[in-house]
Amino acid sequence: MFEEEVGYSPFLGSEDFYSRRVAGLIRQGHSLVHIDAGGKVKFKAELGAVTAQATQVQGVWMNPEFRGQGLSAGYMAGVVVLAQQFAPITSLYVNEYNTRARATYERVGFKRLGTFATVLY
Fold it and tell me: Checking DSSP bridges between strand 54-62 and strand 31-35, what pairing results, if any?
């Protein structure tokens, strides 16, 4: 997911740092993943920022093998249920060009509140 979205490996620089970050999210209960019986990751998402007021969903990824089957809205609804155990507001941001993801988020109840640009360097 990271490489699809950002264009480079999350291991660039330090595989150890990224691995510790993911392990921390798991320990905190902020990482969600569905692995099928064959060991393939079908879906994943994380709560990257969590406060008493709001959570921010990040790292949403649906395995390309399972895309287009109508599964993503149910997964995202589950993410929101978990997020709202931590805070009343659940937020995320999504790239403008990602129309399929945006449609899924709208089906779950997310509404567009603003637009901003991220500059990576």
Answer: unpaired
